[in-house]
Amino acid sequence: MSDPVPFRPSDAAAWVTAPHGESTKYRRGVLGVATGSDRYPGAAVLGTDAAVHTGVGMVRYVGPSRATEHVLSRRPEVVSGVGRVQTWLVGSGIAADSLDELDQATAEAFRHASGRPGSGDGVPVVVDAGAIPLVGLGPLAVLTPHAGEAAQLLGEPRDAVEADPAAAALRAARQTGSVVLLKGEHTHVVTPDGDVRLVASSATPWLATAGAGDALGGVLGALVATRQGAAEAAGASLSPSDLAHLAATAAVVHGLAARRASGGGPFPVTALVERLPGVVRDLVVDGDAG
Question: What residues does 141 pair with on adjacent strands?
């Protein structure tokens, strides 16, 4: 099998959807977010904040009251409650083994994200690895595990995943039937059929910090929602290959924002979020941001 293809900022530029004169907040993409919990409200704040800074028409947040209060305090433009969305982001900051363990609002959002009968959805869904048992998977799902979560999913030692992350990502994609973004020093993205195998290496080691994955989820959710909104306006839909390229784009945007926030040293994830608009702008206007 061929080696993964490097995915660079110039490649990512083609997958960032810029607004135009006929854009509305609905055509621009609506992202539904079901993340965070009463115990971990920060995951919801970081994910929604990253999505807004990446550029999306609207973010709808669904979660418990404490997390909702934190989200709306940070980002008052976010809309609270379930409604029509073009993409879901679920799972960050949630620790549960079944839907019954979730608060009612989050469980309802997960049902919508799964595209289950009667939900009226069936749109792309970005799934943090902890939520994999709680959400219906398939070709419209993008899973975002780190090495430990991938090892748990595959039922094998973490060392085996870290020894060959490209192969581990492919195994996980084939097992779940979903696109997999395996986080690490080099982020590997794979489609279930293995036809698309990409690797992004734009990040800095300083990015290994709490909250980084929450922000990545927000970036990816926003990129998918804006692309899905444009596709729907054109009467089209996204394929697993499209989702894989968008996932690699998210890794690049996230990594470049981290490098700018770092300047060679440590930084809070909130500083990464503040750098996202500049990275997106450079990709749209200049076609690169390296």
Answer: 125
pLDDT digits (tens, 9 = 90+) for 108-127: 898 888 875 334 457 899 99
Work out the number of other CB atoms within 10 angstroms of the CB of residue 284.
Answer: 15
Distance CA 43, CA 105 (A): 16
Structure tokens at 55: 């550029």
Domains defined for the chain, CATH in brackets:
5-17+24-283 (3.40.1190.20)
How far is the CA of 11 from the CAs of 144, 164, 238, in angstroms? Answer: 20, 24, 18
Between the alpha carbon of residue 152 and those of residues 92, 147, 160, 172, 206, the distances in Å are 17, 9, 11, 10, 25
The pTM assigned to this predicted structure is: 0.95
Collapsing DSSP states into helix, strand and coil, what is residue 147?
A: helix
- Strands in the chain per DSSP E: 5-6, 30-34, 58-61, 79-80, 87-90, 125-127, 141-143, 179-182, 187-190, 197-200
